[in-house]
Amino acid sequence: MIEIDGLTKTYEATTVVDHVSLTIEKGEICVIVGTSGSGKTTLMRMINRLVEPTAGTVRIDGRDTRDRPAHQLRRQIGYAIQGHGLFPHRTVGQNIGTVPRLLGWEKPRIAARVDELLSLFQLDPALYRDRLPSELSGGQQQRVGVARALAAEPDILLMDEPFGALDPIIRSKAQDDLLAIQKRFGTTIVLVTHDMEEAITLGSKIAVMDKGKLLQYATPAEIIARPATDFVNQLIGTGDRPFRLLSLETVLDHVEPGEAAGDAIDASLSLRDAYAECLWSGRDAIPVEEAGQRIGRVTLSRLTALAARPQ
Amino acid sequence: MTPGAIVRLAILILLLAFLLAPQSFAPVFAPLTRFGAPPIYNQGSLLDITLSHLWITFLATLASTIVAVGLSILVTRPFGKEFLSLSRSLANVGQTFPPVAVLALAVPVLGFGTEPTLIALFLYGLLPIFENALTGLTNVPRDVDEAARGMGMTGWQRLVGVELPLALPVILSGIRVAAVISLATATIGSTVAARTLGEVIIAGLTTSNTAFVLQGGLIVGILAVLLSDALSALERLLARRAGLTRRAEA
Ligand SMILES: Nc1ncnc2c1ncn2[C@@H]1O[C@H](COP(=O)(O)OP(=O)(O)O)[C@@H](O)[C@H]1O
Ligand SMILES: [Mg+2]
User: Fold this and answer.
1) A230, B70, B72, B137: least buried by Cβ within 10 Å?
2) In sequence order, which residues have a C-beta less than 8 Å from that of residue B235 and are 6 or more positions away?
3) ∠ CA A152-A157-A159 to the nearest 5 degrees?
4) What residues does the ABC transmembrane type-1 domain cover (chain B) (predicted)?
């Protein structure tokens, strides 16, 4: 659990983070979203003390982050950034092993962990372990960057626009991978982005920042249904609200018994995908299947009702 | 082997042959002498003088490297930032001072011999190495530096593990410039009795023996080219090791 309490950062006369308080529960993905310059990065960097707060405190599992040297704190917290920051003179394996080496792990344990992570990120260890970062594609470099952040099995992972440099298809794949890894390890993730779509896709909680202030801190559904200010509303995009709402749940959550004509869709898709399929194929209902088995259908009228503003 | 490498190897072999058996080259230089003057330098072993010249160059460049790199590390640490401009101007003074003036000033203090020459060359080598080291240490990519801090590397660990390895090719390039300048400038050391190839040139000038002048000049010139080439090759190797260029391209 991360407790941020009255956190403030002032540079000379300007306050870039202004009295922000929020609590991030264990195993949550907290996405900090806001326009450029709103103080997201500064807020996140105060968690691992890359920026020292002017006022306020950060407690991790009840313990003030200032009660140990900053470099020791940082070794307990994963850190991944846009542009990945891989060491160009170190191999992929050495890059991933950085924090374990700092923590004094035994060599065989580091080697095993490096291979485990490479496999987890779908990079064949034998093929990629000894390459230099410059010999990887952008998407691969980004995966190595996240693998490196996870190497010492941190409970907390901080990510600053980690997917910002990726093209849309690789980006959406990277987001899926992150969700899968988060589920597997239960890591608490704090992720900064300026993209509301990404915030809604990834966040279990979203913190909306503007001009250094925290405007709203709530679940994606809550933010879409009841934006706290006009600014939050704009960030969501009023025209997109029904679709963003639908994107939060899967077909499996709303499948109902019954038959329908035509091709089936997979239960793991989002309601938004199901809605698009209804509109595109001109059907009022679509069969749903799970692992190749028909399990029921989803109807247009149901989807329409779900897309309406929650009461 | 590339044609360039073959030419360099041939020149090196020729130089070694000349230094080890200078008399066998007498017919080549004889046309440059008059009135039966000796065609090959005869006031000392050319090999010994060349080795002494190289040794002086090496010592001076080594000292410049240690001081300049040390200084550049200090002024790029958080506590040393204020000294950045001061140390820059100090190194600049070293460079604007003519080496002859340094020699003239140093002789009364240190007497004749190798020391004043070493000091002049040392001062001369400071600036190129310092400037390059500064460039290398301050040009570590932002995201790399931030990642290193974010992962919990201490200042010392970042210096040794990230900044210096990434800056090494640029630092070496400064060392190369300093070494070549030093190699050429060392010749004037013989005016204050340091044992360098300047001795051969001066002997040639005072006795109007063009062959001597040419011998001294050629040895210095060839050494400078070979040294510069060798260090350039090392630079490229290090740059590749540092992942600054793709292996495939190199
Ligand atoms: N070291 C610094 N010194 C002065 N101003 C800074 C510093 N770091 C950030 N800022 C300013 O703080 C504001 C917020 O920056 P940042 O947290 O990076 O925003 P975001 O990540 O939301 O784009 C910006 O206006 C930026 O210029
Ligand atoms: Mg930012």
Assistant:
1) A230
2) B169, B172, B173, B176
3) 125
4) 50-235
- The answer to whether A310 and A225 are in contact (CB under 8 A) is yes
Q: Does residue A3 come out as left (phi exceeding 0), alpha (psi in the -120 to 50 range) or beta?
A: beta
For A135, the closest of B152, B165, B246 (CB atoms) is B246
DSSP H helical ranges for B76-197: 84-96, 99-110, 114-138, 142-150, 155-158, 164-185
How far, in Å, is the centroid of ligand 1 from the Cα of B146?
Answer: 15
> What is the set of domains in chain A, with CATH numbers?
2-237 (3.40.50.300), 244-308 (3.10.580.10)
* Distance of alpha carbon B147 from alpha carbon A77, whole angstroms: 12
* Chain A interface test: which of B151, B164, B166, B238 (most A C-beta within 10 Å): B151
Q: How far apart are CA A237 and CA A235, in angstroms?
A: 5
State both tokens at A167. 């093209």
Residue with tokens 């190495």: B129
Its ipTM equals 0.85
A77-81: strand order across its sheet: A77-81, A156-160, A188-193, A29-34, A205-210, A213-218
pLDDT per residue rounded down to tens, chain B (250 residues): 788 889 999 999 999 999 999 888 988 888 888 888 888 888 889 999 999 999 999 999 999 999 999 999 999 998 888 888 888 787 777 777 787 787 788 888 888 888 889 988 998 888 899 999 999 999 999 999 999 999 999 999 999 999 999 999 999 999 999 999 999 989 988 888 889 999 999 999 998 889 999 999 999 999 999 999 999 999 998 888 777 664 443 3
Query: In whole angstroms, what separates CA B23 from the centre of its chain?
Result: 29
Helix (H) or strand (E) holding A217: strand A213-218
Residue B120: partners with Cβ closer than 8 Å, 6 or more residues away: B99, B102, B103, B106, B185, B189
Q: Which of A73, A98, A133 sits opposite B243 (nearest CB)?
A: A133
